[in-house]
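Amino Acid Chain and Its Fold in Token Form
===========================================
Scope: a single protein chain, as residues and as a discrete description of its fold.
Amino acid sequence: labelled as such and written in the usual single-letter residue code.
Position: the record begins directly beneath this header, with no further notes in between.
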Amino acid sequence: MTEIDLPTHAEIGAQIGDMRLGVDASELHGLLCGYLSGGGLLARNDWLAKVMADDDLSGADAGSVLDQMFENTSQLLESPDFGFELLLPDAELSVSERGDGLLSWCRGFLGGFGLAAGAKPPLSEESQDALNDLSRIAASDLAYDDPDTDEEALEEVTEFVRVAVLLLHSDCVLAPRHRRSLN
């Protein structure tokens, strides 16, 4: 099995800054994951314009870190080994910076998912609950009182979000694809 790695949060952030996109690295990755998980079809040359809902936006250059993020994220979401990960600020940063990154990622995911899936996607009850939970997480106002407890809580919420994304992707992308192949 080949390991698929995303570019780093800092690398993505630098290219976003150069392109003046108006989002941070976590939010852009969330947008991409939400769009893909909502059943949106993206091509390598126009994914950025679609997830940013800006037809005038030029695509990411082939081989750039944004191009790598698109390719690797697409592969990770489809991977049968559940290797998908969220692009969040680096582990050596404070828990508050990483927590803010998680909220930004969730807001991006919800935006991308809504763009691709529409207002009332046909979701299983479990997926609807996961989407509602992601909405609550995105709207949260985090308080940081105890570094050890906060670190553990952030890890648990991050894992919950990761699994929720895989569930939504399965419901909106993999299940319909499987049903089409049976017909």
